[in-house]
Structure formats: C-alpha cells, structure tokens
C-alpha cells in the first residue's frame, strides 16, 4: 500500500483552529510540480482538469475510475508529504464500485477525495441541468466509502461528502443530505453551487462541528472570496480548481497565436534573466534531484553533467 502521510497531515490541518488549507487545482505532472515549487500546503486534483488533460473532453462524466485514480496517484507520488485531495465524481457506480474506487485511491496514496450525489453521467457542478440520485443512494455511496476505508489497514483517508442538490432541491434539503452523509461516515461537508455569501456562511454554522469545503470556480455561480475571507466564514479547505486549467489555456492559446502569426516564439526575460527555458522547466520537474540521487547511489549516468 502507498501509505499516505498526506492524509495524516491533512487531518492535522483540519484540527488546527487557525488553519485554512488553500489548494490550487492541478491537472498533470507539470502543473503539480509548479504548485509544489511555490510551496502550497496541499494540492487538489481536479476531475474537470483530468478529463481535459487526459481525454481532451469536457467534464461530463467521461472519465473512468482508472483515469482518475492513476492521475491522482501520479500527483500524490511527487511529494508524499503534501496532501492531495482528489475528485472522485460519483464513485463510478454502485456501493461495490464505490468501495473499489476508494480502495484504488487509498492504494495511490491520496489524502482525501470527494463523492457527490449526481447520477453516474454527471457534469461539472457549475453547469446547469444536473440530475441527482435519491438520498438513500447517496448515503449508500458514503457508507461504502467509509467501509472501504475501515477495511484497509492503516488508512486514514479523508472522505468529503459533496452535494449538488442546492440547485434543484433548495438549501434545507441540501443540508439534510450533508448531515446524512456525515452520519454515514463522511469527515468533511461540501455544498456545491452556492450563489450568495449568506449561504456560504450559513452552511458552516449548520454543519458545525463538521469542517466545510469551499469551491472557488472562476466564471462559476459561487461568489469568489480570498483565503482570509474564507477563513472568516469558517471554511477549512478552499480549492481553486480552475487555477491551472485557466493558466494553461490562456498561456498556450497566446503562445500558439504568436507562433502561428510570426513563425517563432520570442524568449521571455525577467530582470534580465531568461525565464521558462528548457533547463528551468526540467529543474522544476526535479532534474538536479534525480542526477544527485543517481550519483549518491553509485550511478554514472550523469557523471558528465545533465
């Protein structure tokens, strides 16, 4: 089993009354490496980003459990001391399949995951027309996740219960779903698609003492707040899932336009130094660390440099 030191650390963060965990949404190895280099306490593997980066498709329930678990495991493996919170969509099926999903995530060393109450052919929580399963089906998913965790020796993975029911069922019904999920074994509550700061503040009060999770989506339906305001509202985990998708999309779009229009890409400089060159990118991915490890172990692959 890939032991998740990240799960223990995430639980420490959740228990710290002064701590709010802010996570950038990462979608692949490069974006995860960049986020790690900046020094974030935790990372969030976005399901939408996984669909886009691995399949080139929108977040419409097209990814499989293997797509998601493999990507999450790769990201978690870059630095085992940094918790990775991963989207697990609906758990990908019946309680039996949910348990299998959770087992895969635990084996990959993921620190936490969230499971939602949409139908299996789900969609991004900030799109319209979401369809829900009955509360009993949703609770069965959470119960299966908790049972899978209990069956895995040494696992302390954090279960985050997400509900997308606010849009169609209203606030009170959504909170009741979250409370039922917590009773079934969830550790953290995640109300998706809130539209006012009043709702954002109220759900924290109504779910206390269960920690709450906040999703900040650029262009979505929830008002955007910074880390200080999220902490003041009482949130323990805040994710920005579009962080890397937005930057990769805009950066790649602009540089492709430059290459298409001029036939070349100009080098970029900051304070007179080249930025974004090949060595800088490779160093972000661990070039020096890899060559140093090889030499320490008695290897000679990089004796003439790298």
Automatic annotation (TrEMBL):
InterPro entries xrefs: ICL/PEPM, Isocitrate_lyase_ph_CS, Pyrv/PenolPyrv_kinase-like_dom, Pyrv_kinase-like_dom_sf
Protein name (Swiss-Prot/TrEMBL): Phosphoenolpyruvate/pyruvate domain-containing protein
Species lineage: Eukaryota, Fungi, Dikarya, Ascomycota, Pezizomycotina
Listed GO MF terms: methylisocitrate lyase activity
Annotated signal peptide: none
Catalytic function, reaction form: (2S,3R)-3-hydroxybutane-1,2,3-tricarboxylate = pyruvate + succinate
CDD domains (alphabetical): ICL_PEPM
Taxonomy, superkingdom: Eukaryota
